[in-house]
Amino acid sequence: LAKTTQPISMDSYEGQEVNITCSHNNIATNDYITWYQQFPSQGPRFIIQGYKTKVTNEVASLFIPADRKSSTLSLPRVSLSDTAVYYCLVGDSRGTALIFGKGTTLSVSS
Amino acid sequence: NAGVTQTPKFQVLKTGQSMTLQCAQDMNHEYMSWYRQDPGMGLRLIHYSVGAGITDQGEVPNGYNVSRSTTEDFPLRLLSAAPSQTSVYFCASRWGETQYFGPGTRLLVL
Description:
A five-stranded mixed beta sheet of chain A has the order 1-9-8-3-4, with no helix packed on it. In chain A, strands 2-7-6-5 form a four-stranded antiparallel beta sheet, with no helix packed on it. By secondary structure, chain A is mainly β. Chain A contains no helices and nine strands. With 110 residues, chain B is mainly beta. In chain B, a hairpin with a 2-residue loop joins strand 5 (43-51) and strand 6. At the A-B interface, strand 3, strand 4 and strand 8 of A face strand 4, strand 5, strand 9 and strand 10 of B.
């Protein structure tokens, strides 16, 4: 099972761009990279997923270098409501269990 | 679709009591899993299932049993509750690399 390493916490101010990097040195060929967001007292919520290069949706971008040993979640112009824990997971679709790390606690201040 | 539902939302048990946490999904997903989350911690995988009749252990399976008789339901059983099992329990179903989480069950074991 591929393990991930993320910073424990990050601080930002409203309107700034936030980049959270995740290391996954032993990622397998079939593994995808998925990021989740969790607010207090709620289950995690899917944000974005990618395999290589860059993926963008309405809430975030995901940058994956060619070697795929790391990935960076980019949140443009964060607001107070983006304060949450962000988890990076790697896994494939063949039934492998998806393991969460401790995630990155993002605190956004005004 | 109701998505992933969990019952009860909150439960208090005495040490040694048994109970079943219910989880159901109406998205016809084959893969389902149970996680626990302790205060300030990430999610830890308890058990998972890749389809009806198939279950496997995750990171922290001791003290918990599961079964998967139907695609829709994936109950988690505590045979003899212990204070160390006080936690928030999340059930999830999965399509591809994306997991969909239920609202969680808060369990307090006295």
